[in-house]
Amino acid sequence: MKKVILLTLAVLQIVLAIIMCVVGAKFAFVHDVMDRWLFVLISGVVLACILLFSNQEYLGKIFTRFVIVYPIGLIMLLILFIMDIPHYSYREAADLIEENTGEKIIEPKDSKGQLGYYYLYTNKDVFLFNSYNGEFTKREQ
Q1: Considering only CA atoms, which of 69, 72, 118, 111 is closest in space to residue 92?
Q2: Cα–Cα distance measured from residue 106 to residue 108, given in angstroms and rounded to the nearest whole number
Q3: Is the pLDDT of residue 119 over 70?
Q4: What is the pLDDT of residues 27-66, one digit of tens each?
Q5: Residue 25: CA atoms inside 13 Å, Cβ hemisphere, count?
Q6: Cα(23)–Cα(16) distance, rounded to whole angstroms?
């Protein structure tokens, strides 16, 4: 029973890592928590392998503390992940700027944003778009 509980938590961690990867791809270039999906995935797989191939005596020693700390850690990770999801993706930001300014967005080859802001390039200007509240401003050059 102990092994099943811990394996279920490890599988939940792996699923969370996959969700972080998928959502992180949509909101690329602006957020840190989603960039750590690979670490979350690898640690979940390693933990699942350890749990699958360990004996019951070893699990009995770590079970009590681990069954308290591990879910708390997963819940904290989930809360950080949910709080870090912006309201606008890069594509939505580009569409909003094109709609409001009438200027066509050019796709750059380098980084498109940082710290919650997208950089959107047009033929004439560069716009900074806040991915949380949808406000944008023309960047001074």
Answers
A1: 118
A2: 6
A3: yes
A4: 766 666 666 778 888 888 988 888 788 777 766 777 777 7
A5: 6
A6: 10
